[in-house]
Design brief:
55 residues; alpha+beta; two-stranded parallel sheet; 29% strand; flat
């Protein structure tokens, strides 16, 4: 069975503040989006990761 993780990261993150959307801001040495992707990659049942980003 194929299971996809859908990561919706198209927001501005304006409540978080900062010069860029929060998914691109650093947190504990990596961007927030990198932490999110790593969490899904660690799950063996996830066979695909799909990112939804703002153009």
């Amino acid at each position: 069975m194929n299971i996809a993780a859908l990561i919706v990261a198209a927001g501005r993150g304006s409540r978080a503040g900062g010069p860029q959307p929060k998914q691109w801001q650093a947190l504990a040495g990596a961007r927030v989006i990198d932490h999110t992707i790593a969490a899904f990659r660690a799950l063996p049942q996830i066979t695909e990761i799909v990112l939804v980003l703002n153009a």
